[in-house]
Amino acid sequence: MKGKFLCVLITLLFAVPVLSFATPNITQVSYRETSGSVSPSGAWEEIFTVYSAGLTFVRTGHRASTTVNTGSWTINGYGTNEVQLLRDLSGAGVYGVVKTGEEGAKIGGGINVYTIQYDNGDVREVTLNSGYTYNNPELIITPVNTYIANVPLPAGASNRYKTD
């Protein structure tokens, strides 16, 4: 009996550290940007949500009588760029990016939010212009910004404001 208990104890001692340090897989990356201080009819919010198979892009206005070109667009098969972004973020150690402090929030500017969701339910988020500080936020910000800058938006989505 003593030998079985010792065997189980040794197995657990070796298994638990391996399980607790395994980094979960990234399932989704979102980037949300808001306009900040502009007239209410021109205020907007844009959200890019990236999955391994493509992305969705949503733009909303803050009022019913908005001048914002609102809509929701799905871009499938943008190539291997989505998969590459998820791999780059996984390999960059973004799971360790955490909030480290709080400074005074900036008044009047837009907000930029970078959110990474994992298959175990964990979420990592970096919110710029919010007054929070983070350790190594560029591990998330740089690859996501590079990806977003190269997304070929559909013709109907390219203008932020209505043109009619």
Can you characterise this structure?
- With 164 residues, the protein is of the alpha+beta class.
- It is 26% helix and 31% strand.
- It is built from three helices and eight strands.
- The chain has a six-stranded antiparallel beta sheet with strand order 4-3-2-1-6-7, covered by helices on one side.
- A hairpin with a 2-residue loop joins strand 2 and strand 3 (54-61).
- Helix 2 (81-91) runs antiparallel to helix 3.
- The longest helix has 20 residues, at 2-21.
- 16% of the residues are buried.
- The model is unreliable at 15-20 (pLDDT under 50).
Task: Explain briefly what this protein structure is.
This protein has helices at residues 2-21, 81-91, 138-149, and strands at residues 26-34, 44-51, 54-61, 71-76, 99-102, 112-118, 123-128, 132-134. It is of the alpha+beta class and 164 residues long. A hairpin with a 4-residue loop joins strand 6 and strand 7 (123-128).
Topology:
Elements (H helix, E strand, L loop, with lengths): L1 H20 L4 E9 L9 E8 L2 E8 L9 E6 L4 H11 L7 E4 L9 E7 L4 E6 L3 E3 L3 H12 L15
Antiparallel strand pairs: 1-2, 1-6, 2-3, 3-4, 5-8, 6-7
Helix pairs in contact: 2-3
